[in-house]
Amino acid sequence: GGHDLQLEDFASEGAYETYTRKFEDESFFEKVTQNHVIVLTLLFCVLVSFLLVRSIFGGGFKFLSCLYRTISCSASSTSSLNRVKFNDLDVTYTKALQRCLIKGLPSYNVLLNPVYRDAFRIDMAFSATHKHVDSVTEFDMEGMEEEKEARAEQRAIELAQARAKAPV
């Protein structure tokens, strides 16, 4: 039942004892089925039931857990076992890089990320020597374009010279 507390209820002597005795006389069932406790009580009952079923059925419980994984579309335990076996392999960092087992950037330097390099229009040499995005403001984009053109022109000259020296 509802326990509406009024200040004048404690005006007389013995009112406090009467009030608390009312709660002490409640049965265990009344205490665990109160509105603010019922969710915890149900959760406790489900947990105890689960543990009892698990301990009683033991190996037969594997069927129930398999059924649960099927219904809930959970990953099977065998895939996690395969991952553990794969992680136990002894592979060096260099071999893992060569075999493309490790993917990603070589460091946390944001300027080495090709997406950001393209967005900021910076070259690899600049990104290798700078680590902070603020340093992009120091980058001379026009100078880089001129330098690329000069290198392309130099390569064209070297290629032409190599062709001229090559026997026909």
List the helices and strands and how they pair.
Elements: H1 15-24, H2 28-32, H3 38-57, H4 61-72, H5 77-87, H6 93-98, H7 114-120, H8 124-129, H9 141-165
Detailed description of the structure:
It is a single chain. The protein has 168 residues and is an all-alpha fold. The protein is 61% helix and 0% strand. It contains 9 helices and no strands. The chain has helices at residues 15-24, 28-32, 38-57, 61-72, 77-87, 93-98, 114-120, 124-129, 141-165. The longest helix is centred in the C-terminal third of the chain and has 25 residues, at 141-165. It is elongated, with a radius of gyration of 37 Å. The model has no long low-confidence stretch (mean pLDDT 77).
Helix-and-strand structural type: mainly alpha
Biggest sheet overview = none
Mean pLDDT: 77
Topology pattern, helix = H, strand = E:
HHHHHHHHH
Low-confidence stretches: none
User: Hey, roughly how much beta strand do the residues contain?
Assistant: under 5%
- As a percent range, the share of helical residues equals 55-70%
Cα radius of gyration in angstroms: 37 Å
Note the total helix count.
9
User: How many strand elements?
Assistant: 0
- What gross morphology would you assign? elongated
Distance between the termini: 109 Å
